[in-house]
Amino acid sequence: MKTIKFLVSTILILAVNFTFAQSDSQKMKTTTVKSYEYKKDGKTVPYKVTVFKTSTTPLKLDKKDKGELNQDREITPAKVTKLIYVDNDMYDDYDKYIVLRYSKEPEDSFELKPTDRGFKVVVDDRYVEYIFGEGVYFVNNEDKDFFFIDEFDTI
Fold first, then answer.
1. Domain total for the chain?
2. Model confidence pLDDT, tens digit, residues 91-138
3. Is residue 11 part of a domain?
4. Which residues, if any, are the signal sequence (predicted)?
5. Residue 80 belongs to what domain range?
6. Is residue 20 part of a domain?
7. Which residue from 6, 51, 121, 144 has the highest number of Cβ atoms inside 10 Å of its Cβ?
């Protein structure tokens, strides 16, 4: 009986390892929390922004290395989804979820920058601004083709 349990366990472990070794994409999840302030009616109002990032990078192998044991990877853009939660403790009307989707090149950077009326999301010199009370605003209309955005109120 012990031998059967050992064999079944070994086969399951090997099967799981082989299954995950054949994955054709790489996934990464991260969470970042930042605290900022903005001015409303002469008062300083604190708020928190939590960014939940999910990134999926397709794994493509270099065609010239086909059939070799150690193949080089081609650089492919990652599909990035960022769920941005804006938490304002003083004004519940300003609590929002923003879903931001875009294709990320390896050298792209992601930054949150506070503004007088909200904050900016900057990705590789393209940006979208979130204004409290108004919502998402594109300063440069060419950036609309780069970002895909959904905005939701909290319940």
1. 1
2. 776 788 888 888 877 777 888 888 888 888 888 778 888 887 777 766
3. no
4. 1-21
5. 25-153
6. no
7. 121
